[in-house]
Amino acid sequence: MKDKPSTVFVVDDDDAVRTSLRLLLKSVGLPVETYASAQEFLDAFDAERAGCLVLDIRMPGMSGLELQQKLNELNAIVPIVFITGHGDVPMAVEAMQHGAVDFIQKPFRDQDLIDRINQALEKDRENRDGLRERDVIRRRIGQLTPREREVLELVTKGKANKVIAGDLDVSQRTVEIHRARVMEKMGASSLAHLVRMVIEADRVAP
Amino acid sequence: MTAHSVKSRINAVQELEALLDAAVDAVIVIDHSSVILTFNRAAERLFGYQQHEVIGHNIAMLMPEPYQSAHASYVSSYLETGRARIIGIGREISAKRRDGSVFPAALSVGQIRGVNPPRFVGFIQDFTLRKAAIEALRCERDRAQTYLDVAEVMLLALDALGTVTMINRKGQEILGYTEQELIGADWFELCVPEDCRAERRARFAQELQFAPSTQTESHAPIVTRDGQRRLIAWRSTPLQSDRGTSVGCLASGEDITERAAAEAALRQSEALLRSAQSIAHLGNYEIVHPDGPITWSDELFRLLGLDPSQGPIGILEFAERFVHPDDLGIFNAAWSQAYANHKRFDLEFRIRRTDGQIRYIHSKGKIDPHPAGQLVTGTLHDVTDRKLAEHEARVGQERLTHVARLSTMGEMATGLAHEINQPLTAIATYAQAAVRMMDAPGGADAADLRDALVQIVNQSLRAGEVIRRLRAFVKTRTAHSEQLEVNRLVEDIRILAVPDARVNDVRLVLQLDPQSPVIAGDPVQLQQVLLNLIRNAIDATCEHPGALRELTISTRPLGDGVEVAVIDHAGGITDAVAQNLFNPFYTTKETGTGLGLAISRSIITAHRGKLGYRPTPGGGTTFFFTLPQLVGV
Questions:
Q1: Which of B414, B436, B466 should one mutate to test binding to chain A, selecting the residue with the greatest count of A CBs within 10 A?
Q2: Widest CA span of chain A, in angstroms?
Q3: Across the interface, do B426 and A85 touch by the CB < 8 Å criterion?
Q4: What interface predicted TM-score (ipTM) does this complex get?
Q5: Which of A10, B44, B393, B473 sits at 20 to 30 Å (Cα–Cα) from B441?
Q6: Which residues of A touch B430 (CB under 8 A)?
Q7: Residue B630 gets which letter from DSSP?
Q8: Burial class, A186, CB count within 10 angstroms (exposed 0-12 / middle 13-18 / buried 19+)
């Protein structure tokens, strides 16, 4: 299915910065929406809309970091490019720890910002693709028997069949049979593939 | 009796009569029954009778009562008893003239021997004048005694041995002895302190040898009866007998103990004044302008570096020679104004001393009318040291104020950097957008491009304004006063305060009085105070999570003045903090200098205002300062 067009959401309390960003992004053909405060953005937020967030880290009222926290609480996956002033590196680090795509210091070269925005939009697409893949993986995991799920968990933790047999108090042969059925049901071509799928499935907590 | 003997007898009688007539005294001869036999010319003159009127009459006619009645009994008593009561003795009697007037007379009576019955001769002298003379003499003596006694000086006569022969009442008072105790006493033994007795005695012996009427003066102590030592100023003159031998000395003495003490005290206080003037570098003068006498204190010469022996100079010469050319204008203006109106003057000016040094002088004085012109009295006070110290203190204070301002700015650097960074970001972004629009295949939309350029200009100006404010705020400067609208002051500080508030997520609310009162003051210093209070309030708000993140800055008239308040809703001020709140170098902030409030308070005090704080109703603290309002502006 084809994605709806992605939008760059700009949130900055400074009129001039906001307006100039709108003009810049428009000039490179990116759809832009601007918001003067975090609350304004949050009020209009729609998780279904694709795009990325260009977010001023310091703002009166709700700050950029607080908005990030609120979006995380909503399981929103919109990638965030923070724009920061000088001396805001500690805040930027915190933002990165909470999943921001990148940050850029004001003032910035237009290309740097555009590159970061493009990366973020790419990330958003991946996220949305991943979301779809995750849905498939979760569905497959849902088709496993309880015993197979136990084996999956232990296998993806890197335990050997012999150890798993001991843990579950079954024969090593039984473990091998369960393991083969898990690989088949999950559609995994290798152990590495299986592990990646489990990580993918765990990425956003149910 | 022979003819010759008769003739010689007649001659003898004639001789006697001539003799009697020539006598100065009245001579009267009576017989035993008091009948007058002889009455000489002097008697005629004295009593006013002619010879023939009295000869053959009783002598009683020449006597007033009661002598008249008593006389007969005197004579008969003498004749009976032979006991004379008057004869050979002489006495003072009263006699009566022909006209009945009575006068005092001296009578001496002798019995003429060799005749029987006995005859008596009386010699009578008019005592009227003599009595008057004696009376006058006694008066004179009494008056002299009175003089001696009322004299306020001690009067003392000593004989050649130094024995007291006379001392007046004042002398007795001073010494504490009675006249009886003093007269006949050895002056030097009794009244001269032992330590100088020998010397005074030797000097006395010398003075006795001086010519009469030589006056010598000396100061010498005496010792009184109760042992007190008193200082006497003596004037003495030697006394000589008719034959020229010295018989003693007469001295007057004035008790100058108190006066000497007062003089010593005066000398001491003059010395004190001189040294006080020297210490204070304060000289005084008195000048009768233009041509009258001029008096300068010693210190005044020193102050100007003038040699006192060259004498003082008048006002005009002083102005010409000493007053600094740059200050001559104010000096002349003050002088001529005071001169014209007989006013006091009080001014400061610089002088150039004779050694070329420039000194600051504070001069005070007054001008009064004087018969010879104007009397100018005043002081010159060398206040150079004080001036320099004041200057130092002012420079120091300004430096400190500046440091505090820089420090405040340092604390706000993040916000200010942000405030400059925002327009720079906008400018860069607009410009880059413009370039991209121009590079786009269809070319730029002119309206979009224009919009971008206008914004670039606006944002440049915005950044420039922040920098201008910042520069004005942090540059070193000398304080000055100007008329300020208090609302304007608050508005102006906003551009510096808002960024700091924003980066700390605190909102600034202004509540400005619509009248916008006018005050006088230094704009930067007052903004510094305001900014300091805002900064503190922002910090307090940040340290108090959950506080309403809002500050109100208000202006309002209060009494005769204006109050500017910064109201926060943070945690308030604890007692421990309150105790040290205005102490320099006391701070509750990790990076604070502790200068902010101390300097803010001194700035407001210098503006004749007050800086204080009170709790904000509902929690938090309100810091405020009041300034006197300028009226009629």
A1: B436
A2: 70
A3: no
A4: 0.70
A5: A10
A6: 20, 23-24
A7: P
A8: buried
Q: Which residues contact A121 (CB under 8 A, 6 or more apart)?
A: A6, A8, A50, A51, A52, A79
Q: Which residues of A touch B422 (CB under 8 A)?
A: 14, 16-17, 85, 106
**CA–CA separation, B411 vs A62, rounded Å?**
23
Say what the pTM is: 0.49
- Looking only at the bridges linking them, the beta strands covering B26-31 and B518-521 are unpaired
Helix (H) or strand (E) holding B166: strand B164-167
d(CA B35, CA B414): 155
Supply B180's token pair. 């009886």
- Residue of A21, A60, A86 with shortest CB distance to B421: A86
Tokens of B120: 């008596």
Structure tokens at B618: 């509902």
DSSP A6: P
* Length reported for chain A: 206
- Coil/strand/helix, residue B126: strand
Q: What letter would DSSP give residue B112? A: E
B97: its two tokens: 């003239």
A151 within 8 A of A141, measured Cβ to Cβ: no
Q: What digits encode the pLDDT tens for the residues B545-582?
A: 888 899 999 999 988 889 999 999 988 888 777 777 77
DSSP letter, residue A39: H
| Residues B607 and B526 sit within 8 Å (Cβ to Cβ) | yes
Q: Length of chain B, please? A: 633
Q: Which whole-number Å values give the CA distances from B16 to B8, B11, B13, B125, B509, in the listed order? A: 12, 8, 5, 19, 150
| Residue pLDDT, tens place only, B236-246 | 888 888 777 88
Between CA B507 and CA A60 the distance in angstroms is: 8
Q: Using CA coordinates, name the residue in chain B closest to A62.
A: B505
